[in-house]
Specification:
This protein has 571 residues and is α+β, with helices and mostly antiparallel strands. The protein has 16 helices and 29 strands. It is found in: Cytoplasm.
């Protein structure tokens, strides 16, 4: 490909609204251009990268016998109404009506669509297991699109769905897909972690995320420094072994004035007690107005995702303070577990459940109880106790191996065991081997195809520009003749072009009338794996080779270049 014929509009200055490295470089190197907030055009270089990523995905999906297909991006709202997600998905859902006044959405994901299709045509367990997938644009009306391709309103995904008649089949495909995803991300050239994830709006019983560590990541990866344990912050667990302190002497319960102690730090100073011997109480609210009081020790924060999953709610949020005061009689900072109304459910973190003679708010403004004991003052039951805290850096990992460390990460893939969440609501059933009608068991498996461009850019780019792994680089080789008016350079460049293509590699030849410095700067910016510079020694058949990732440069006979390409590219 001649560079004069390539639509590659590079920029000399980084746009002011480009906050992260990947956004800056993909714009600057002419890979993407914004069309509207959160929606990008993929220019020729980016499209070639996408094509190579998709090719890797297709190869690995074929290896696990997945069927590729394609469903509409415009979906009838009725499907999502039947599953319940039309009401619960939130403002991220694009909703509109057609000319017949029928409700539609732009698909952010396609569990309902595939469930309906499979449920209509598969009626016997003998037709299962089945694994289908597509590569398609998705749409989510992000309130604040940012970071280029990392948070957009339109994005390209590979979404796959498994259908089995038993949970053993689900487990088998789930494990196969995890292995396939590992191969995909290995081939793409990413550093990544497989972490325990939250199913969130997808639902289901189990999930794993694939996260690429990067400073621009919006997720926090929590991992052990001494084992393979890793989870996102919402699901991460630290190690805690319950302690029975019930035999310790119980002090007299007292209510004291604490007008200036609304925070744990202030209460700790007032009582001269460490935060881990005090408790904090927050009130959360479910989607139907249900209230729960969640108690943790003062040195930990309440984890809303863990609370949500424990309660089985589609979402929870912190309750409004005015409503809480009307219900409990006190404002935030004076709340506690004693004397809660019957319709406020109590949840206690396991660390707090082991405390004796501890202090907490008295549900009166400016007052706290001291010397609280659960068995005497609250009658706590085992069913109310769990892990409701957000893990902290430096704590022992839940597997007991190593301390927890935090890093930022970009979610690049997510796999879910959905069970019967969608088949039950949409009526997708098969007859099992005993002739009984049973709900189809499902899994869902997604990869952010367009997001991978940003993730690779964040991890691999340097101060000169993008650095593409050979497996997904838009071109394998960049041939840069310094002066095409020189007959020797022009002839050698043309010969190399033919040799490279004949050997099965893709090349880009810089035939522009630009200074050498401009050509080299643009070559570094767009980040192709191998650059071959044809310069003053062309008459001797000598070229300079530059390997973009390692930065290694050396001269060699042009006649030997093609033979060495396989070694340098190692796809």
């Amino acid at each position: 490909m001649k560079q004069t014929q390539l639509f590659m509009p590079t920029l000399r200055e980084v746009p002011a609204d480009a906050e992260v490295k990947s956004h800056q470089l993909l714009l600057k190197a002419g890979y993407i251009r914004p069309v509207s907030a959160g929606a990008f055009a993929y220019l020729p270089l980016a499209k070639r990268v996408l094509n190579k990523v998709e090719s890797i995905v297709r190869e690995e999906m074929a290896a696990v016998n997945a069927n590729e297909m394609l469903v509409p991006e415009i979906l009838p709202a009725e499907l999502w109404q039947r599953s319940g997600r039309y009401a619960t998905y939130g403002q991220d859902l694009y909703k509109f009506k057609n000319r017949q006044d029928r409700d539609f959405i732009l698909g952010p994901t396609h569990e309902e669509t595939f469930t309906e299709l499979i449920g209509n045509d598969i009626k016997s367990y003998k037709k299962l297991p089945l694994l289908v997938y597509q590569i398609q644009s998705k749409f989510r009306d992000e309130g604040r699109p940012r970071f280029g391709l990392l948070r957009t309103r339109e994005f390209i995904m590979k979404d796959a769905y498994s259908f089995t008649s038993d949970y053993e089949g689900l487990d088998r495909i789930f494990n196969q897909m995890e292995a396939a995803y590992r191969r995909i991300f290995d081939r793409v050239g990413l550093d990544y972690r497989v972490i325990v994830g939250d199913a969130g709006a997808m639902g289901g019983s189990d999930s794993k995320e694939f996260s690429a560590p990067a400073a621009a990541g919006e997720d926090t990866i929590v991992y052990s420094e001494s084992s393979d344990y890793a989870a996102n912050l919402e699901m991460a667990q630290d190690f805690y072994e319950r302690v029975d302190r019930s035999a310790e002497p119980k002090q007299e319960l007292k209510k004291i004035d604490t007008p200036n102690a609304k925070t744990i730090d202030e209460l700790s100073q007032l009582l001269n007690q460490p935060a881990d011997e005090l408790v904090k109480t927050i009130i959360v609210q479910g989607p139907e107005g249900e209230l729960a009081a969640v108690v943790t020790t003062g040195d930990f924060e309440v984890n809303l995702v863990k609370v949500q999953n424990f309660l089985g709610f589609p979402e929870v949020e912190l309750a409004d303070e005015a409503m809480v005061k009307e219900k409990l009689g006190a404002s935030f900072g004076s709340l506690g577990p004693i004397g809660l109304p019957d319709d406020v459910r109590l949840l206690v973190d396991e660390r707090a459940a082991d405390l004796v003679n501890f202090a907490a708010g008295a549900n009166e403004d400016g007052k706290h109880y001291i010397n609280i004991n659960w068995d005497r003052d609250v009658a706590l039951t085992a069913e109310q106790v769990g892990d409701f805290r957000t893990a902290k850096e430096g704590e022992l990992a839940v597997d007991g191996k190593g301390k927890l460390a935090f890093t930022k990460g970009i979610e690049i893939g997510h796999i879910f065991k959905l069970g019967t969440k969608y088949s039950e609501s949409l009526g997708a059933k098969v007859l099992d081997q005993n002739g009984r009608s049973v709900d189809i068991i499902m899994g869902s498996y997604g990869i952010g195809i367009s997001r991978l461009l940003a993730a690779v850019s964040e991890q691999k780019a340097d101060d000169r520009g993008l650095v593409w792994p050979a497996s997904i680089a838009p071109y394998d080789v960049h041939i840069v003749p310094i002066n095409l008016k020189d007959d020797d350079q022009a002839a050698l460049a043309a010969d190399l072009d033919k040799q490279v293509q004949a050997a099965g590699y893709d090349d880009l030849i810089d035939d522009r009338k630009e200074r050498a410095g401009v050509k080299f700067a643009d070559a570094d910016l767009i980040g192709l794996p191998v650059r071959i510079t044809v310069g003053k020694k062309a008459s001797e058949g000598i070229v300079e080779v530059n390997l973009r990732e390692s930065g290694e440069s050396f001269e060699m006979p042009a006649a030997d270049v093609v033979e060495r390409l396989g070694e340098w590219l190692q796809k």
